[in-house]
Amino acid sequence: MAAGETLGAFCLTEPAAGSDAAGIQATARRVKVREQVGVGASAPTFAAPATSALAAEELPSGEVYLLNGTKTWVTNGSAAGVLLVFAKTDPAAGGKGISAFLVEPRFAGFRVGRHEDKMGQRSSPSVEILLNDCVVPVENRLGEEGQGLKIALSALDGGRIGIAAQAVGLAQGALEETVKYAKQRKAFGKNISEFQAIQWMIADIQTEIEAARGLTYYAAWLKDAHPNKMGASASKAKLYASEMVNRVVYKAVQAHGAVGYSRETDVERMYRDARVITIYEGTSEVQRMIIARELLGAPDKQKVAAS
To answer: Is 281 an active-site residue?
Structure first.
């Protein structure tokens, strides 16, 4: 992955578990390989296709996990070479019973389901992942059993900085398109860039982008230099940048007038691409809860595990 030879995917969200990450229903059951393939006295757990099943000699521990469940909105799930999947090894323990696993598409019981027909960001596939007694070697568990939610939330903290950067870049592109169009488009005998209404629109866009860029850079610097002091910085950057980009693309389309509503323009696509940024990697509402919790404190039962 570091060499760019394969893609990874993050599998946390489920049909009934989005912002409430602790509410996932996918399970992971540890069994002996002998039982799993039906060699001993125990009946086989399932009959895996010979072409995709993992041979016992590939499993030096003599044990595997069988993962069952459905993951949704998995970015690049149909193209990934390895997927980080979260499932409950101890369902009775709630969030403390979640574990993390590295799953490969070749594993028996793994299948890519439907592709979402999305409003925007259509070049990046978002798919459903189906796990039906998916055979995962014990060695592919990431961390210890019960550490999955901690791993997931840590990944989301870093991911939110990336999403904030995405929002800043998208907004910058919308600004550049708007400036270029304003200098070319004529109305009432002059370029629309000479009208104060357009000038104020562009000035507001630039100011908001710089504010979001500053929050994003600061959060990224904290993660690199002082990771233990990050606090809610990633949430602040993600919250402001994601809502900023939606305001920016709205103004960009408005400045373009009717042509901004056409699929022929980049700002139309940017308008659609921006909408989901306030939703994934934790909704704006969840980010506000995280920020407020840092300031006010909150009992454990009120803590939100955002996805």
So the answer is: yes
SS3 for 151-207 is HHHHHHHHHHHHHHHHHHHHHHHHHHHHHHHHHHCEECCEEHHHCHHHHHHHHHHHH
The residue among 150, 160, 157, 158 whose CA lies nearest residue 95 is 150
Alpha-carbon 281 to chain mean position: 5
Pick the closest to residue 89 from 141, 43, 13 (CA basis): 141
**Distance between CA atoms of residues 202 and 196, nearest Å:** 10
Specify whether the CB–CB gap between 26 and 88 falls below 8 A: yes
Mean pLDDT on 205-222: 98
pLDDT band at 57 (very low <50, low <70, confident <90, very high): very low
The pTM (predicted TM-score) of the whole model is 0.85
Instruction: Give the Å distances, CA to CA, from 287 to 19, 220, 291, 293.
Output: 10, 17, 6, 10
Selecting among 243, 268, 281, 285, the annotated active-site residue is: 281
The residues pairing with 83 across neighbouring beta strands, listed in sequence order, are: 9, 103
State pLDDT tens for residues 68-118: 999 999 999 999 999 999 999 999 999 999 999 999 999 999 999 999 999
